[in-house]
Amino acid sequence: MRRPMSRPASRIAAVLAALALAGCSGGGAGGGGGSARSGGAPPLVIHAVDAGTFQEDFNPYHLEGVNFGTSGMIHETLMYFNKLKPGEITPWLALDHKWSNEGRSVTFTLRPGVKWSDGQPFTADDVAFTFQMLKKHPQLNRNALEIEGAEALAPDKVRLDFGATSYAKLFNIAGSSPIVPKHVWEKEKDPSTFTNPKPVGTGPYTLSKFSAQLYELVKNPSYWQPGKPEVPVLRFPAYTANALQTALRQGEVDWAGAFVPDIQKIYVQGKPEQNKFYFPPEGVVTLLPNLTNPVLAKPEVRAAMSLAIDRDKIVRVAERGYTKVAHPTGVPMPGGEAYVPPEYRDAAYKVDVEKAKELLKDVDPAQLKFTLLVPSPFTDWVNAAQLIREDLAKIGITVETRGVAFQDWVSKVGKGDYDLSIRATASGPTPYFQMRSMLFGGLAKPVGEAATGNYERWKDAETDRLIDAYAATEDETEQQKATQGLSKIMMEKAPTLPLFYSPSWAQYRTDKYVGWPSEQDPYAMPSPYTSPDAAVVLLRLKPAGS
Question: What residue stretch is flagged as signal peptide (predicted)?
Answer without folding.
Answer: 1-29
